Amino acid sequence: MTLSHWLYVLGVISVVITMVLRRNVIIPCIIFTFLIGWVFLGSFIGGIQTVFNASLVAAKDLFSIFLIISLMVAMLRSISVTGADKILVAPLTRFMVSPLVSYIVLCLSTLIISLFFWPTPAVPLIGALLVPAAVKAGLPPMLGAMALAFSGQGLALAGDVIIQGAPGLTASAAGIPVEMVTLRGGILTAITGITAITLGYLLNSKEIVKFQKEKREIAAAQTARGNEEGDFEKPEIAPLLVYLLAFSMLGVIFSLFAFNIKGGEASALLGGTAFLIMAISSLAVKGKAGLDFIGDYLADGLVFAFRVMGPIIPIAGFFFIGNPESAVGVLGEGAPGFLFDIGRMISEVIPATGLLAGYGMLVLGAITGLDGSGFSGLPLVGTLAGAMAAGSPSVAATLGSIGQMGAIWAGGGTLVAWCSLVAVAGIVGVPVLDLVRKNFIPVIVGLAVSTFIGVVFLM
Fold first, then answer.
1. Under a CB-based contact definition with an 8 Å cutoff, are residues 325 and 353 in contact?
2. Domain total in the chain
3. Distance between terminal CA atoms of the chain?
4. Which of 154, 173, 166 is nearest to 380 (CA)?
5. How far apart, in whole angstroms, are the C-alpha atoms of residue 408 and residue 155?
6. Is residue 271 one of the residues assigned to a domain?
7. What's the whole-model pTM score?
8. Residue at 244 is within a domain
9. What positions belong to coiled-coil segments (predicted)?
10. DSSP structure class, residue 162
11. What are the angstrom distances between the C-alpha of 445 and each of 74, 80, 181, 225?
């Protein structure tokens, strides 16, 4: 462990303390990014450059998320001028009869789509189409965002029982059959998810009452609101735009199944569809003037995304230098993976069996997830699980599954503001750091319960 490693540890601790104090963590991240760059490169000027380079690497990595948020918001803005958004939400409100039912519908919808295609396309779809109806039924936007995060970023992704990308990485590194990790990971993440989803709703019951009393009508993206009744432009074409949007989204979902499209490719299909709908809507509503107005809609979407998500970039930059792959782009060749090195050091003092082994592996997984990926630490988690198991496949599978849960629930994720959780917060229109704080207790309790059950019954 070098001085730069210890500076990274201090940086992580300062970020956690600052978040607990309910303050923004941008300044601590900037300061420690500078100090680490200065010490590692041995240059004061290099330290200053590191602050910029870290943010640049983070911005490149996160831009696809920013863009999909921007496009969905811009698309909804382009149809809302006709009142089409209100027509679109109206049928859904029949199913969203109460906050509890709305919460359950959001969780199940996100879970089903995320299991087959990962949360990347699920969040924009559910966030744009179902969250506004849930909000109208009395569900606070924050609780809607929590439903999407728990069921998609956590429950579906951490188990990954359909696509099996996560258990495949863990099992391969541990040297055990993928079926063993898939089974245990599925059981443990189901326990975590059910616990977190239940606690999330119960702990925010007062917020629901408060939200209903205030009778606020907040749209999911907050920029996708229609005008007051009677102020719409060409309301006669609103039903056509609704049909266009509905059939386009159904076509996207069908294509995902039919052509086995998932992950980034699914986001590209959804984003391209949003572009085309926005172009058609602009021309249909504005005529020739639509050639100019489409730029306004796109600018509104981008401004919204960067206003809500922009502060995450320097924070992500700090945590990205903990990942050996992204650290090279910031600090140059030979840059260590600070997070992973710290994880290996901690693993040396963890016992091989028992509750300490389980919770130690959970913490290790969460540490590797702090880079905002969730998946990058799975090979390390699997390797350590295999080494600690002393030849027992059952122990290796359970420890690997626990570490996998920690990595993905934290960094995949529900507890890290600079991961794809920004997409959830952005599309719903809530502050991502506030969402992390709201997620913390339900997720931590869920992980603690599932780890206990895993150690006692599955090892």
1. no
2. 1
3. 32
4. 173
5. 9
6. yes
7. 0.76
8. yes
9. none
10. T
11. 38, 41, 22, 36
